[in-house]
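Take a look at the protein record below and tell me what you see:
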Amino acid sequence: MLKRKWFRWVSYLGIVGMVCALGLGACVVGEQGEKPCESRSDCVAPRDCVRGFCLDLSQARTEKSTTDVEKVLEGTVSEPSQPDGNKEPIIQPEKTLEEPISQPDEPSSKEADPLEPSSPESRPEDGGAKEDPSETTQPDGTCDKGFSWCDGACVDTSADPRHCGGCGQACCTGELCSGSSCSVGCPAGQTACSDKNGCSVCAALATDKNNCGACGMVCPQDQVCNQGACECASGTLCSGACVDTKSDSNHCGGCGKKCAAGQVCARGICQIGCPPGAPLCGTGASAVCCSDTCCSGACVDTNTNGTNCGGCGKACAGGQICQNKLCICPNNQTLCSGACVDTKSDIKHCGGCGKACSTGYACDSGVCRLVCSTGRVDCNGVCVNTSTDNNNCGTCGVRCSGGKLCSAGTCKCPTGTTLCNGTCVNVNTNNSHCGSCGVVCSTGETCSSGSCVCSSGTASCPGVGCVNLNTNNSHCGSCGTTCPSGTSCSTGTCKCTNTALTLCGSSCVNTKTSSSHCGGCNKACTGGRVCSSGACTCPTGTTLCGTSCVNTNTSNTHCGVCNKACTGGQSCSVGVCTCPSGMTLCNGTCVDTKTNGSNCGACGRVCGTGSTCQSSACTCTDTTLTYCSGACVNVRTDEDNCGGCGLFCDFDEVCTLGVCRCVGTLCGGICCPRGSTCSGGRCLIP
């Protein structure tokens, strides 16, 4: 065996040398070029794993013909089978280098081999191109006019806040979509402004610190917004800064009144030295006489100073100001989540902290009020179309009465009725307006087809006379309408005398148990379901799949669960698809591995040409041949299987009658190549 493997390596290295000599690849002995491999990942680019060895065949693929490569590989001998049943790498002359090289162990993320066929995903003509989600169409192909297909539904992009002006263009919280644009409907006294995220918000320009007097006009940290103007929370505004004119030497007693060198400001007066009760605060030229509190070299009034409120370093946050040594929100604002807000207008804190208004609502005087889209009006918290709303016709609160309906903002009588004394009536049946307004039928008569007939509460029925259609079982509700057995006429309707039953058609039935009228008239239970407590249910042991009750333990169409069909000859048993006894599931089909030539003895084991599967083993149909490695061969003459499968003859040996025989010169038990001579038990090659 060692001799044979050595011979195979010598033969292979000779072939590698010829491939390199022909310019078909870059192969250098001792480098990656001749390294054995199992997959491309074992080789260094640009080499590929070809028939078990790393080769650079890029030139062979582009410049040399397949015929040249086949000539180099021609006559190569296969390796023998190993004891563990695995095969050594084999270079097969019948395969061309143009054929795709399978790499089963290679991860899918590797770069595709240029010789491999394109994958389905890369070929649009094969349906592999991935579909752009934006081009997806709805099930019926189109939306109604004025609507667009977004996120699996037809939406009106002119009014939908999730898709305003186009799919996925969502409006901010509090905004509504009108005319394909996001906007916010603000109540009286508020203005629509943009916040730092570009979203529309309603702002009270008179008090909003971020929109003081105008949108985007932000007051400095030490100022508040009052009547639409930024002003100091404490002190006086001088040169754009809030200062204490009682102690500031640059603005002593008023803006711009600067004290001379050597003077300090005390109680708004420039003087030399500090008066009693107002010690010097700070150092150098910035020192001031401080009658209040000295904090970090600055004289501050801790009653009003927002940075030192009630004591040095106690800063007010979230837009609060300092009053009487306490941090409070200005302008009757409320501290919510660390920030001062106007709960009368803030949509996140409307009427109180955390009380957020829903989308489409604005905060007005602390109450979330509905903001309606174009064409609709807010009437008592509901957006209505005053052109058609019967309770708000033309304007809020105008209710159509007397049977009138709202049309184009006007209350009108419906077709077939006439307005008589403010009420829409049918002059064909109305006793007070029979035939026309004001025509009243006499006592005992009723109006029928515009004519007064019979007495009050009765009607004229042919051949019978006047009858009470409300109580007459033979003329219930109308002449000739007979109530079925078990029913009686009440208020002109046939009703079952047994109140537990319901009249369906001409029969009184129990809608809790009737399979034809389950839960209501004409609601039939189908697909094998029965009626129980007014609901159609499947009998015990069955499951509703689609519209039919089935036993998922035995149904081949719904095996185990709905819509799980047994295929490939399988049948359902105890909710599991199984093959019949003696059959095996191979590639989705039940087969007999004892006789199936494509799955002989096991799934995927294919019998070669000229053989059949018998008793789970591939057997040659020609009894003179032996089945070896997927093919029928004559072990008496086959040099790769001489005398038995896997027994091959060495170089210059032929198989005769199942025995390898030397065709050259036999020398000392060694078969010398043809043309050599034997001398002293050694082969001499001239």
Confidence is low (pLDDT under 50) at residues 1-34, 58-141. The first helix runs from residue 2 to 21. The two ends are 28 Å apart (CA to CA). The helical segments are 2-21, 58-62, 66-73.
